[in-house]
Amino acid sequence: MIQRNMAELAGAIVQISAMGLPPEVKVSVVDQLQGMQEAAVKVQSGAPIGVLNTAKRRAVDYVATLQNSQEASATTCQQLIDLLARKAASYRRRLGR
């Protein structure tokens, strides 16, 4: 699972890079994705699924702050939220939850 997660994370980084975000915002979004990935690994090791749900919620909340501070457009923020939702769903499927 970890190798697949790393490959998916690399793909997500490419997608994020194409969105034209400032470098510091890109790094923060990638940090949020890594947090979701780490949560998925914890769930795989026996932690409750709520750990992954919390990581996703935290990431979506971060994207909302980007939109509120106007560091990213509404369209870009929606693309980021969609990306986060797809990653969380992918992790859940692989975890069988």
Automatic annotation (TrEMBL):
Keywords: ATP-binding, Nucleotide-binding, Plasmid. One of its GO terms (molecular function) is ATP binding. It comes from the Bacteria. This is ATP-binding region ATPase domain protein.
